[in-house]
Structure formats: structure tokens, C-alpha cells
Amino acid sequence: MTRTTGRRSGAAPALSGQARRRRGVQRWHVAVALGALALAASASLFVGVGDLTPADLLDPDEAQARVLWTSRVPRLLAILLAGSAMAVAGLVMMHLTRNRFVSPQTAGTTEWVGLGIVVATLSFGGTSVLGKMTIGVAFALVGTAFFVWLLQRLVLTDVVVVPLVGILLGGVVSAVTTFLAYRFDLLQSVDVWMNGDFSGVLAGRYELLWLVLAATVVAYLWADRFSVAGMGESFAINLGVPYTRVVMVGLAISSIVTAIIVVSVGSIPFLGLVVPNLVTLAMGDNLRRVLPVTALTGAAFVLVCDVLARTIRYPYEVPVGMIGGVVGGVLFVWLLLRARNRAL
Amino acid sequence: MIEIESVSKSYGGVRVLDDVSLTIPTGGITSLIGANGAGKSTLLSVASRLLPADSGRVRVDGMDVATTPGPVLARRLAVLRQENAMSVRLTVRELVAFGRFPHSGGRLTREDSRQVDEALAWFELGPLADRHLDQLSGGQRQRAYVAMVMCQGTDHVLLDEPLNNLDMRHAVQMMRMLRGMADELERTVVLVVHDVNVASCYSDRIVAMREGQLVAEGPTSELMTPELLRKVFDVEVEVHELAGRRIGVPWS
């Protein structure tokens, strides 16, 4: 190296100190985002029909304490858990399929979970959450594997066609679900199950959601492996990363997270698609850096949607899935148009 | 040292590699030459375990590439393919830093960071370090990929057409850098090159292939002859001595 140092000293200042500062999102951005999220989170504790104000926290009466601990706090936790995990699941899926438009919502995973829930209900009756979850997870895994298998066999040159195949597949699965539901008089229940809604979250009925936190932590620990796999198979092999295994683990994490969330609170359209896209647009694709911010943004997205859902028609609630669909849909179209222009 | 022992590989009934045996000694630059479809890239891919061989085996410093654990081999041998369509948006520094993954598992030590800086400086990527790959020209990106492979710090570096996308200036610069890697850093560099004269001017040894078989191998000076080049490329090539180098001229 000595030979080169003199000649290249001009480049040296660019390497040190200040110049290493990241462009785009910086640390203080994250700090501000965290602060905003904390603020919104505490605000959400005081939105609802039951009277509860910040002042009451100092000296809550029995009814207020019950509202807080059986409804408001579980609801907030469910929102934060589902929002962050779903966004991360989308991020991982988008990396491993190497397509920005593939997420559990565009790969048909959500629809497979729906079919799983109906099948579980028909076989165990409507009461067993664990049964629904197990079968939902199984269907999500099979469905995602099928989608990926299909992708490997189709030669698709346009990035936008890949999610279209997924959406198509989801449509077919969803049609089967509807048919079954129609035959067994479950149509209304399916509607309620599938549409994302946190109003049913109460202490004792959301705790399985903590599993998605575990899955998100695993995803973070494997973030570098997912980044490497996202570079492509030969890069991965070169760097000593077992490509196939990493892809399978990542897709399994995404599917399991999706299934648990859909079974617990329903589907929030576009969450796993729009949030990772927005974050990576600003920060690049190094998962280790991007994943925590994606989790925070996902939580914030759902929190804002949920607060809107609770206030728009106060004292009634609109399902959060509907708000998420509207907000996310607009952002999705914007991303699509942008991808066309930039020829991703 | 890379030992290739009677390796064969077929794609859909077509034999792309036919019982190839070859030993690439430690040190210097070895260039694989041959016409399109001669099997150079396939041989490079098999040697670097990107492709499994149908039969035969490849050993790197005595380790069978098919059975040695990926991370162990990744510290001894690095490979870069010709096609590197990467949709991932990383900065140049992040990409090069991933070259340290086999050593650090992602948590860069001070030594790792030093190596990253060194690789960036070596390929004159310092000013571009914080740019995203999709903001670079094809040539700059190619340099970033090669810098990543160099940063891996392996004794063996295998590159498939490293001059892809490079203009004349950067092609010369790249070959000088690879020469430097071989001479100063004592790496064993193996290249697939389509330009015979690049192979002639910069490599120590040449391996000539045709239709999946080895035609000849040996020191560059012995192989740069009209007879051999005709045999390999099916074209009449005059070989002239110019400034101490053998240059093949096919346009006669």
C-alpha cells in the first residue's frame, strides 16, 4: 500500500471524520421520530369513549384503571407490536425476493392466512385462537413458499409484474375463502377477521402478539445475512452465507409474523409494502441500519391510522384497516409511478 | 494453489466442461482465455463453488470447495462474476465493508475498518464512498465490486471479466491494480479475459480453453504464439513483439 499513499492522499480527507456522516436520515431524525412516536403513543391512551385524561393517571378511580389496563394499554401495545413487526416482515420479504413491490400483502400471504382461519374455524369451531394461529401460520408458510416457487419458474422481466402475480394468486385464494365462507355461513365473520381492527384488543386476548416481537428480534440479528442474500446468490455464496437457508428463514419469519398479526388483529393493507419502501428510499438498503427505523415507522404508521380511525367518526370507530388502505394505497401508487420513472 | 481434478459440467445435455484438470500455482496473475462458450466462466464458477461440478473436484489450498464450510472458504477465496445486477441500494463504503463479512460477521473491528479504507483508497473510491451504487457509472460500480472482493482479504481472487464496463483508462488502471494485488499483496489472481492482449500484457500464466477442454497452459511468453491462438480462437493471428510485449493482431 505504501506505493499508493502519496499519490492518493487527496482522497484521504473524504474518508475521515465528518465526511463519513450519513446523508439522508441522521441520528437526530431518529431521535425526533422516537419522540413523536412516544408523544402519539401517550396521546392514544386518552382517545376513546371511556373518560380518561392524563390528570386521572395520578389518581385513577377503579373504572379508569380498568379502562387503562384492560383496554388502552393492551391496544397501544398491540398497535406497536403489529405495526413494527409487519413493516419489518415486509422489509425482509422485499429484500429476499429482490423486488421492492413484494410484501406479505402483495405475495398472497395475507390471503392464505385468511383461508387458514376459515379452515381452522370449520375444523375446530370458532373459539380456539391457538388453533387458528397454528393453521394460519401453516397456510402462510405454504402459500409464500408456493409464490416463491412460482417466481423461480417464471421469467418476469418487469419488477411490477412480480407483485401482480402475487396479488392475482391472493385473489384466487381469497375467492376460495369466500366460497367456503359462503357455504358455511361465515361470510360476515371472515370480513371482521380480515379487516384490521384494534377495537377488539383487550388484556388476555392479544398476548400472542408478543411472539412477533421475538420474530422481529431474530430478523434484526440476521439483518446482515438478509442484506447479503439480497445482493444475490453468488455474492452470498462468495461471502460464505448459505443463501438458500437464509432466504427460507427470512421468508418463514415474514410468513409467521403475517399470520400471527392477521389472526390477532386482521390485515392492515400496504403496511408491509409502503413503510419499508419509504424508509429504504431515504436510507438505502443496509438492513442493519434500516430495520430499526422501519420498525419505528411501521409502529407510527399504524398508530396514526388507529388514532384517525378512532376520532374520524367519534364516538364510533372505523376499522384501522380501512384507513391504512386509503393512506397506504395513495403512497403505493406514488411509489409505482416513481419506479416507472426511475426504471428501478 | 487451486487444484482442479477432472472436472466436468453439462447444461441440458451440452457438455460445457469436459474432464478439465489444471493446477493454478500460488501467486501471480493467471488468465483464462478462449472463444465465447469455451467454458472459461463455467470453470471459474465451479472453482469458486458458485456452481457444483457434475464430476471431479476442486481444492483450494487442499480444501475441497464442495465440502468446506462456506465461511471458511470465504476467507481463502473470493470471486466476482460478470453479471452483477444488484438491486440493493448500498453506499460504496457499505458494499466494500460487506467484504469483511466472512471475518467479522458484520460487526466491523478497527482492523476491518482499516481494510475497508485501504480498499477504497486502492481503487480510488474515497470521494465516492458515501454515494449509493445506483448513483455511479457502470465503471465506478465495477471498481466498487472489485474493491469489495479485494477487501475480503483472501489469498485467492477470481474475477470473471473484470474489465467489463471499463473504458480504456479505467481498464488499464484496473489491470495495474490487479497487478499490484498480485505483486505487493501477494494474492493469487485468476481472471477470465476476452482480450488476448490484456492477458498477454498483464498475466504471468495463461490457460487456453476450447469447447470445454483445456488446450494449453503455461507461462504467457510460451503461449502467445500464432499457432496456439489459431487453435484456440479459429482465427489467424499474427503475434508481434512491441516494447517487450507480445501483441496478437487478428486483422491481417
UniProtKB/TrEMBL annotation, chain A:
The keyword rRNA-binding does not apply. It is found in: Cell membrane. The chain crosses the membrane at residues 28-49, 76-97, 109-127, 133-152, 159-182, 202-223, 235-253, 259-279, 291-312, 318-337. Its main location: membrane. GO terms for cellular component: plasma membrane. InterPro entries: ABC_BtuC-like, ABC_transptr_permease_BtuC. It holds the Pfam family FecCD. Gene3D superfamilies: ABC transporter involved in vitamin B12 uptake, BtuC. GO terms for molecular function: transmembrane transporter activity. One of its GO terms (biological process) is siderophore-iron import into cell. Residues 1-20 are annotated as: Disordered. Keywords: Cell membrane, Membrane, Transmembrane, Transmembrane helix, Transport. It is a multi-pass membrane protein. Belongs to the binding-protein-dependent transport system permease family. FecCD subfamily. This is Iron complex transport system permease protein.
TrEMBL record, chain B:
Residues 2-236 form the ABC transporter domain. GO terms for cellular component: plasma membrane. SUPFAM superfamilies: P-loop containing nucleoside triphosphate hydrolases. GO terms for molecular function: ATP binding; ATP hydrolysis activity. The keyword Translocase does not apply. It holds the Pfam family ABC_tran. SMART domains: AAA. Keywords: ATP-binding, Cell membrane, Ion transport, Iron, Iron transport, Membrane, Nucleotide-binding, Transport. This is Iron complex transport system ATP-binding protein. It is found in: Cell membrane. It is a peripheral membrane protein. It comes from the Bacteria. One of its GO terms (biological process) is iron ion transport. Transmembrane segments: none annotated. Its main location: membrane. Gene3D superfamilies: P-loop containing nucleotide triphosphate hydrolases.
